[in-house]
Amino acid sequence: MFCGTMGALFRNLSAGLYCVIVCAMPAYAHPHVWITMHTELVYATDGRITGVRHTWAFDDMFSTFAIQGLESKEKGKFTREELAALAKRNVESFKEFDYFTYATADGKKVPLGDPLSDYWLDYKDSILTVHFTLPFKTPVQANELKLEVYDPTIFVNFEFAKETPVKFVGAPQCKFDIALPREMTSTERIALSQIAADVSNTTMAWGAQFANKILVHCS
To answer: Is 127 domain-assigned?
Structure first.
């Protein structure tokens, strides 16, 4: 059975994966993929931020389906090289959604570029984790930096890891706060539940309201 179009997010990860995930879930289920994230903010010696380094761990269900059909020398284990093609498709699929990462510096939007070439996947304890770095197109000097991570369509649910969710690399005299997404109202939950599983929710501008935020303060 064809599940319909869920957008481009993970449709290229492996043949049939998208339909398998969606068809296995109730018609009202949103989101469909869960990601636990660690984020590193990378600074140059002059105090400008140069990039955002993400480590995103997928939920076990998605991880299991994502590796179906992949060959490995050792059963149940994969090297970085064996996962390289999947990593490439994975990271490329994020581009349509601006890598789910949005930044403002002193109140102004600042653009991030495509991931650096040293991205990779690892698979450990039945969890698939993607590692990649988004460079700022121009290194940014800011007293107040806001970084938001969210899926505009609420197809993917992001949450900070409980341990060391955010880390500075080379930040001079900077501090950060984390702002968690607000709770959905009962009305919003009902409206979201009524979207069929084969609809990507692109018409609902809710994603930004449920963003995970990193607020950086530099003196």
So the answer is: yes
